[in-house]
Amino acid sequence: MKKSIMALGSLLVLGAAHAQKVEFEEFDLSNGLHVILHQDKSAPVVVTAVMYHVGAKDENPERTGFAHFFEHLLFEGTENIERGQWDKIQAAHGGTGNANTTDDRTYYYELFPSNNTELGLWMESERLLHPVINQIGVDTQNEVVKEEKRMRVDNQPYGNLFAEVKKNMFKVHPYRWATIGSMEHLDAATLEEFLAFNKKFYVPNNAVLVVAGDIDTKQTKKWVEQYFGVIKKGEPVVRKKYEEAPITQEFHASYEDPNVQTPMIVEAYRTPAMTTKDARVLDLISSILSDGKSSRMYKKIVDDKKMAMQVGAFNYSQEDYGLYFVYGIPMAGFTTQQIQKEIDDEIVKLQTELVSEKEFQKLMNQVESRYVSQNASVDGVAENLATYYMLYGDVNLINTEIDIYRKITREDIKAVANKYLKPNQRLILDYLPAQEKAEN
C-alpha cells in the first residue's frame, strides 16, 4: 500500500510537470530588442520585465559596483517620470516592481493588474529611452548602496564569505570581485562615467523584454512596437573572453570576520558554465549532500553525530564559470578540521559508490517538484523566460531543461563528483572570528 501511494505521488508530480508547459511567442524589433510574450489568463495580472546583458563582470576593474549601482540609479526617474515618483505611480495603479543584479545580468520588472499592461510597458520603455542620470541621483543612490553594503555584507555574520571565495578562486576573470563592488570605486566615479556605462549597456540590442500574464497578444504587440520600437539601436557590446588556469593543487586562505563567534570551514571548487550538463549534475549532487534533514551531510554530521550546527553544499552556476561550495559550522567541542573530514568522507562516497536506486528516485522526485514550483507564478515564468534567452540562448529550455535532468544517471553523478570535486582542485577557506585567528 505504501509503495502504491508513493507511486501515485510520483505520477501526480510528473503529471503536473507535464501539464505546466509554458507557451510563448518571441520576435525581434528592428532595433535588436528581443521580445517574448507569454499569455496566462489564470489571474488578472501582467509582468513587464526587461533583462539587460550587463552584470558585475562587465565592469572596469577600477570601477566595480557599476552594474549593481544602476539597478538603483534607474529608479531615480526619467524625462517623463519625476524624481521620486516611480514607486508612487506603481502603487497608485495597484502595482509593484523591483530589480536585481548578478555578475552576468541586470533584471527589472513591473507587476500590474492586467488593465495596466500599457502602463508597465511605458514605464520600462522610459527607463531605457529617457533615464535622467544626474549628480543628484548619483549622490543619493551612492548613500543607498553604502547602507545596503553595511546591512547585507559588512555587518552581516559571514557576509563576506562569497566575496572572499570569489577573490581567491578567480585570478583573471571579472567574477573575482563582489557584485556590490567597491564603495571607493563608486565614490571616485564621475558623472560622465555613469553616462558612458548607460550608453554602452542600456541599449535595446543588449536586452530582452518579457510580457507575461493576462495579455491580449495582438494589442500587446502594438504597444511593444509603439513604446520600444522608437528606441535607437546601440553599438554592439563586445565582450572579452577570460580563461582561468586550472587549479591543480589545493590551496588555503583565511578571513577574519568581527561579526561571527564561530568559525566556518569552506571548500570551494571551480565548475563549468551553467549551460553544461555537468552543471546540472552538480545541482543534483548538492541535493544529495544537503537538501533537507534527510540529506547525507545533514543527517550524519548535524543530526546523528551532532558535530555541526550547520552544513551545506550548493552549486552556484554562472554564464562563464561556476563555483561549488561545501561548508560547515562546528558545534562547541568540535573543530573545523573534524567537520572537514566528515564532509570529505561524504564526497568520497559519491566518487566511489553509486547512489542507491531508492535515493536516486527520491532525488528525481525533488527535481520534478522544483520544476513545477519554478513556473508556478507568472513573475517566476517571466524571469525564467528572460534568463533562458539571455544566458542559455534557448528560451524553450523553460520546457525542456527538465528532460536534461531526467536523462542524468547514477553513473553521471559518480563521474562528475570525480571530475570536479577533487582535493587538488579546491580552495580551503578558514572563515574565522577576528579574535580567534591566532589560536587556529
UniProtKB/TrEMBL annotation:
Entry keyword Hydrolase: yes
Pfam families: Peptidase_M16, Peptidase_M16_C
Gene Ontology biological process terms in this record: proteolysis
InterPro entries for the chain: Metalloenz_LuxS/M16, Pept_M16_N, Peptidase_M16, Peptidase_M16_C
Signal found in the keyword field: yes
Keywords linked to the UniProt accession: Hydrolase, Metalloprotease, Protease, Signal, Zinc
One example GO MF annotation: metal ion binding
Signal peptide feature range: 1-19
Domain Peptidase M16 N-terminal: 35-176
Domain (Peptidase M16 C-terminal): residue spans on this chain: 189-366
Family: Belongs to the peptidase M16 family.
Protein name: Peptidase M16
Source species taxonomy: Bacteria, Pseudomonadati, Bacteroidota, Flavobacteriia, Flavobacteriales
